Amino acid sequence: MHDDNRNDSEQGPPGVTRDSDAVQVLHRQALILDCFSRGQPRLRASDVRAATGLPTTTVARILRTLVQENLLQRTGDYYSIGLRVMAWSAAATAGSDLIDAARPIVSDLRDRTGESCIVYVRQGGARVAVLMSHSEQSIIYQGKVGQIQPLNAGAAGKIFMAHEPEALALALDAGLPAFTPNTITSVDRLTDDLALTRQRGWAYSPEERERGLSSMAAPLTDARDALVGALAIGAPAFRLSPESAAQHAPALVECAKAISQQLL
Questions:
Q1: What is the pTM of this model?
Q2: Range of the domain at 54
Q3: CA atoms within 13 A of residue 121's CA, in its CB half-sphere
Q4: Do 131 and 222 belong together in one domain?
Q5: The sheet that has 126-133: what strands, in order across it?
């Protein structure tokens, strides 16, 4: 005769084994991600095996999954931290001070301009949105926090390139790829555009990253006058023309300075 109660007890409650397996997989993924550091930003699969002690097949399977999820990126035999993790890092680096200081002012700028307003920080050769207040109009710029975008296309990217030599060097090293016919791909044209950005205190990008979308941005600085981010307005191109951008510029610059003042 079978003892059903004993069998149920040995098997455990439904889902427990499945949950334990999931926790073990997550632990192993974290173990592998922990192998990457500032001192060791690029590792081979054999390096990961040596550091973790995990079986070869397990390491290969988890590395493949992490690449698919954009948590790691692969170049030849080497792996490095992926853009998804970089977005998390950028949000953490931005810190609560910047986000807390910017939140009410970004909402105010959205109300004053009627357009979506975004705070970006730079992460290496990319910019990442860390705060966003969407327009309440029917046709809007629909971005999201954590979105990663290039430096060479878009107004916020111009702010970083205009004020940070490292950002400009990284953008130039990437080759200034074209995203639309309006993307600036000439070094001479970009140099002139960045000089104008510094001169007037704000940048303008007419459909340079995406057709039908234009943007403008102003710098955010800390107590040392170091650039910590960019405050941007993103809108459909038919509403953010050069003339409209010039009209919005005083409010944009005023709000950027107000956020910077909060960081002193």
A1: 0.71
A2: 4-81
A3: 23
A4: yes
A5: 148-150, 126-133, 116-123, 227-236, 213-221, 203-210
Query: How distant, in Å, are the alpha carbons of 44, 82, 114 from that of 41?
Result: 10, 11, 42
CATH code of residue 49 = 1.10.10.10
Calculate Rg over the CA atoms of the chain. Answer: 23
Q: Which of 150, 148, 117 is nearest to 220 (CA)?
A: 117
CB contact at 8 A, 230 and 119: yes
Of 81, 101, 132, at which residue does a domain stop?
A: 81
Euclidean distance between CA atoms 94 and 78, whole angstroms? 28
| Same domain, yes or no: 92 and 204 | yes
Indicate if 216 and 130 belong to the same structural domain.
yes
Query: Treating both helix axes as pointing N-terminal to C-terminal, what angle do 187-200 and 155-163 enclose, rounded to 10 degrees?
Result: 90
Q: How many CB atoms lie within 10 A of CB 57?
A: 8
Q: Widest CA span of the chain, in angstroms?
A: 89
**CA angle centred on 243, ends 230 and 226, rounded to 5°:** 20
Report the pLDDT value the prediction gives residue 15, as an integer from 0 to 100: 52
> What are the pLDDT digits (tens) for 148-175?
899 999 999 999 999 999 999 999 999 9
Residues 137, 228, single domain; the answer is: yes
157, 205: one domain = yes
Sole residue written with tokens 């950002």? 167
How many structural domains is the chain composed of? Answer: 2
Give CA separation, 144 vs 117, 118, 148, 176, 244, in Å. 11, 9, 9, 24, 24
- List the structure tokens of 233: 């307005």
Mean pLDDT of the chain: 89
